Amino acid sequence: MSVSMRSRVAVVGYAHSTIERRAKRALGAVAVDTARAAIADAGLSLQVVDGFVGSAMLPSAGGHQLVDGVTIVSPTWLARSLGATPAYVAGFDGIGQLSGSVGMAVNALISGAADYVVVHRALHNPAGSYHGNPMRDIRGAAQWSAPQGLFGPLAMIALPYNEYLLRFGARRESMAAVVTEARKNGARLPWSYWRGRPLTTTEYLAEPQLVDPVCRLDCDIPVDGVAAFVLTTAERARDLPHPPVYVAGYASSAPPPRRLPMHWPLDDILDGGAHTAARLWRGTGLSIKDVDLPQVYDGFSPLVWFWLEVLGICPVGEAHRFVEAGGIDADRPGAVPALSGGGALGNGRMHGVPQMLECYLQLSRRAGERQRDASIALACQAAPHFGGVVAYSSEPL
């Protein structure tokens, strides 16, 4: 985002469905109700909403069928089902689903393609094995990795996690501090799947490993859930009921080096993430010292260590010690509240929604009893080298 684009767009309303393991209603029906609630929260009517943006990816390696309105919800399906007549509808299909969707919405609003844009993310938990291997024959590059067990996200994250443990002398006890922190904060949220269910270190360490060294609690749980946000220009935001939260800038990671499928070397993650962060700082004029509320992505627990390091919150190789010493304890004065919104581990597999939502709630002063003193926030999505980050501010920069 160029300097001329900073703070010209704001988030002005939101809605979030209850997060359930498997909802009793179709995902599309939940998405329609959630979008309507977000529009009403922004003080708007459906008639003025003329833009819809989102990502409809179903993050499952199990060969599940894509059915719009059932297993996914595309922006086109949502706009049609709401009965809207938008001027701009776009689906993001790239790196970092939610951060990429926000970027598209910002561009549409600044260009004048739309006046009010709904950005949504709808996640579905299909029946059966979520990451089962449906392959019966293997072709292309995967023939060199899948027969040896390197397929699907668990093996993908296990490799750099193992590499980090060995290279920097980290321990699984340090990772327990990540997962219990996410669950502690998620347990406080009324919409969270883990509401009222914090986790102890003993419980975490007792979990058997799925793919060494990843255990079940290192993974965000697949769920059914929908969130929607309303964005508009800064000028229009002044007339709406809630304090606007400005998009200060965003950065998406560059395509990573060509590797075998699912091969994520640790150096690729850290080097690529450092470049992503550098683009954000250049585009916003900010540095990590300006950020009060970094919300790091945690779809898999090792990503928390990786994001802390590429953002410059702690040196490379030190995140495990930083976290184990209470460095991200949201209840500790002076700590970095990097998972204060519970993240994916504390809410459920909502693909960056917890990070964006915590930024919005805190900066708009709508977090209730959890309210923090924050004016600059970051919402990170996906992996540092294969995702994106959005900076938000409570005042124009």
TrEMBL record:
Transmembrane segments: none annotated. InterPro entries: Thiolase-like, Thiolase_C_2. It comes from the Bacteria. Residues 277-380 form the Thiolase C-terminal domain. One of its GO terms (molecular function) is acyltransferase activity, transferring groups other than amino-acyl groups. This is Thiolase C-terminal domain-containing protein.
